UniProtKB/TrEMBL annotation:
Domain Beta-lactamase class A catalytic as annotated: residue spans: 69-195
Protein name, UniProt field: Serine hydrolase
Pfam family, one: Beta-lactamase2
Region (Disordered): 25-45
Species for this entry: Rhodococcoides kroppenstedtii
Length: 367
């Protein structure tokens, strides 16, 4: 019996519709606007329009947290609450990589054997992200494995797959190579002081087999990577978890943090306070065009069953910066499907929050 395959895709911002409007010159960030006594009734909740997402924040506060800081104003809702982050957490791995390049620990031009990357790939668990990355990088493959076992890939290009396609193997490869202390130091440099290094591969593997030690998913990931016999036979005779079990699993065992934690990282990238490695972080994150009045936009999102997350940083040539983070969890299968089908609407709200001065007061009314 083949092991059950559960689609656990990770998000890139392929559906982004980036529009914006001009606003005033940058100023010192103002306090969050207090909800007006005459706040209108929130919009009807829904997944298919930006307004619908504002309505969802009002209707489902237990599931949604956000931070918006435009430089001129800010608003936050449940920003200190610990929630699932999914692949949005990979921005910390990116910071760790960039710091290691800055101090000479890693060489971005190093040619990494593709098989060293491939060992961290669990087929069927990433929504096709890894194979999409191989294809973009021009690495011939059969849909599961590279055709040339002697092929190599430039380390910096491999890291780009973590950001663009949201490949899960790269952050685990970096964790194995750099160590947990390097990840914690990277998070701390950006203001996230209690970071717990996650395993993206181990998290997905643990979902396939409830008999494994789910409190030590990093050991599971490493055994899968380096024990060929274990890898070949893993989870072949287990019963697929039901929907409730999957949602509960990812809520507990997936990467976690708060909207504030993630916002601190993006703020440090946007304003340059991250220090060593910030240029490489920006170069990797800011691969898509920015909405006016900004000239650069960095993004990393994530999704797992029941979870949808986004983190943005925006920069302008005039020194203006903005940060937007939105975390959603607790979605059942139908709502999760609707959210994934309407990513453009949600992402449009987050871009509007950074570019349209009218949006922050509206979010304050539902915070």
């Amino acid at each position: 019996m083949r092991r059950p395959m559960i689609l656990m895709s990770t998000l890139t911002v392929t559906a982004l519709v980036a529009t914006g409007c001009a606003s005033a010159e940058p100023a010192t960030a103002a306090p969050s606007p207090a909800p007006a006594d005459d706040c209108p009734a929130p919009p009807a909740a829904g997944f298919d329009t930006p307004d619908g997402w504002i309505g969802l924040a009002a209707e489902r506060p237990e599931d949604i947290a956000f931070v918006v800081d435009t430089g001129d104003s800010s608003v936050a809702a449940r920003a200190d609450r610990d929630q699932p982050l999914a692949s949005a957490v990979k921005v910390v791995h990116l910071v760790a990589y960039a710091r290691a390049v800055a101090d000479g620990t890693l060489d971005p031009d190093e040619q990494v054997p593709v098989l060293d990357w491939q060992r961290w790939y669990a087929p069927g668990t990433d929504g096709g992200a890894h194979i999409a990355a191989l294809n973009r990088l021009g690495i011939p493959n059969d849909g599961t494995s590279p055709l040339d076992p002697a092929a190599t890939v430039r380390l910096d290009d491999m890291v780009s797959a973590m950001v663009r396609e949201s490949d899960n193997g790269v952050p685990d490869y970096l964790r194995y190579r750099l160590g947990d202390d390097a990840l914690r130091a990277a998070a701390s440099a950006a203001g996230w002081t209690d970071f717990t290094p996650p395993t993206l591969v181990g998290t997905n593997l643990g979902a396939l087999d409830p008999t494994v030690d789910r409190d030590d998913l990093w050991s599971l990931a490493q055994r899968f990577a380096f024990d060929a016999d274990f890898r070949a036979g893993y989870a072949q005779n287990v019963t697929p978890p039901d929907e409730a079990a999957i949602l509960a699993y990812y809520d507990r065992y997936g990467p976690r943090g708060s909207a504030d934690d993630l916002a601190r990282v993006y703020r440090a990238v946007a304003d340059g306070s991250l220090g060593a490695g910030v240029d490489d972080v920006r170069r990797q994150l800011e691969w898509q065009s920015a909405p006016e009045p900004f000239t650069a936009m960095g993004f990393k999102g994530g999704n797992l069953p029941g979870v949808l997350t986004h983190g943005f940083e925006f920069r302008g040539d005039d020194g203006r910066t903005a940060v937007v983070v939105w975390l959603t969890h607790g979605l059942d299968a139908a709502d999760y499907g609707a959210a994934m089908e309407n990513l453009a609407a949600h992402q449009q709200l987050l871009v509007d929050a950074a570019t349209d001065p009218a949006v922050v007061p509206r979010l304050a009314c539902v915070a």
